[in-house]
Amino acid sequence: DCPHGFEKQYFELDSIKFSWDKNLKEGITGYNLLIKKIPDSLLISKSLPRTDVPFNSIDSDIISYYTTDNSFTLTDFDPNTIYAAVVNQEQEYMPSSSSEMLILNSDNLLNCPNTPELTSEFTPMRESIQKVEIVWQIPTDTSIAYFKIYKAKDSIEAFQRYSPFSRPASVSIPFEPKERHGYGSDEINYYQMQAFDSIPYPITKYIDSLTIRDAYYWVTSVDSNGFESDFSSLIKPIDVPLVYKDMLVLFGSTIDESDFIYEEHISSYYAELLSGYNYDLYNWSEEQLYNDSCESGFCVDWKKFAEYKVIIIEEFPNPKILTNEHESAYKLFTRLSDVGQTVVFFGTPPGSQIVSLNSYTDTVRYSLNGFEQKYMGISESHLVPWLGYYNDFLSNDTLGGFRTAVPTVSSAPLLHINSDKSLFKPFIKQLFNLNSNIPFVSVFEPLSNTDVIYRFSSSYPQSSYLEDKPVGVYHKNTFNHIFTFGFHLPSINQTDARNLIDFIYNRHSSTPAPYLLPSSIQLTQNYPNPFNNSTRIEFALHEPLQVSLFVYNILGQKVTTLIDNQFIIPGNHIYFWSAKNDAGEDVSTGMYFYRLETEDESYTKKMVFLK
Q: Which domains does the chain have, with CATH numbers?
């Protein structure tokens, strides 16, 4: 297990700082930074070394530096010499394997600022508004003067880059490179693209209104001396359908007895829970495993999913949906997140590890560039595993004992567990203890830019190592919001679960960008109508306004207040009425009116309540 994230940063002409990711595993006592001078025999040109030679094969003396930290500053760096560097970690028995090798010289250190990091891989394009928005993070360099924007209309032109690439000399290339160096049967080619545009530092957003189909974009940073960084990762605009449905519920495997819940129970549970919402259910296992036309085992049209404003994922103990294998290959949820859909995940994100009822691990770590860190904003998950022959002891779950999820924000509802076990399969029921604590609940290690919205509350706070840990987190990305919860929604009291869904939908769900605002106030017909349980009332604002929303009976008497002179931002807003008056009493069958009022205007529509 070698150190990851090994990178270099420079400060002065004769000093350089290295950093890498800290490994939290037990038994690691420190790190070794290893430096070698690259001999002239391995130079293709004066400043261009070969990079295909392993560090251990470089024939020169090794310089070693030991540190217990995950960074080190080298103060005797010679900018006129080319070096190779790696780092490994000191472990209890022997050093680990080494990290990837870095090449250090005046060209790639002293003259080049850090590369901008794009916040997304895709950017949405909608028929209604033809523009592309690109967002990146500010590099750590303080000398950056401006950023360059590069744009290529096809993949062939996209090969023209500053970064070198190697190919056999006998293979033709689409454009003549700016510079070429050969050795043996191979050659190193340098390209240089013409910048499309530039913007000054510290602006980190670029909007291109001159969009073209199948374009590619990159960003570089340029310092005050005119030195330019490498290209950022590629960002590609993609066509996105308009959003016209509220929610899509994806649930994973329900095939095996060890899976969490029966499919028919999922359907009936969500039918009652999401009453009033325009939603659909998608059985992942049924659609993927038993689709005869699906040869790859992953047959999903992501644009169909993009028609929903909120996507709920119920990933049960045998992960099927958001797996590292699927996301790396197909980028389904990367696309959905980048174009503006809100994703709400329930369960334990599997990452690259196998997480199931037979797992022995109590910690799941996520890679730096994985979906979990980049989009969910979490670095690790922790849980109490089910360990087979320890079942009689661990089924009591005294180390976990999940009872409630306690909100950290005042507007979020308190969540109690659902003590009714009838929804779950027999195998899962036996793992509930006498006090009905929910098994297999995960807590998270959030990144610094991730908000904790719920904390784990145990029946055994003295013995539970999950007590007060984050069990619900919220991460805001460029265009969307992602919520991650360590429990399953059917495990929560249904009233509390509905309050949680309303909280997410009304206050935090994304408005996919760009989303057209109305030209004036719009009040739509409630749905369903007539209704016998609850109904949804939706309106849209074209500008920020002070708004009130009331319900009146046929005599003109006010029954309840849904919004009381609140400041509401532009966009679509949805509220629900459960046929109760302000005192919480059920109202009688009949016709009612809902009225939206601003300072200057009012809008009224009628609805029918049937018991």
A: 7-110 (2.60.40.10), 117-239 (2.60.40.10), 245-508 (3.40.50.880), 522-609 (2.60.40.1930)
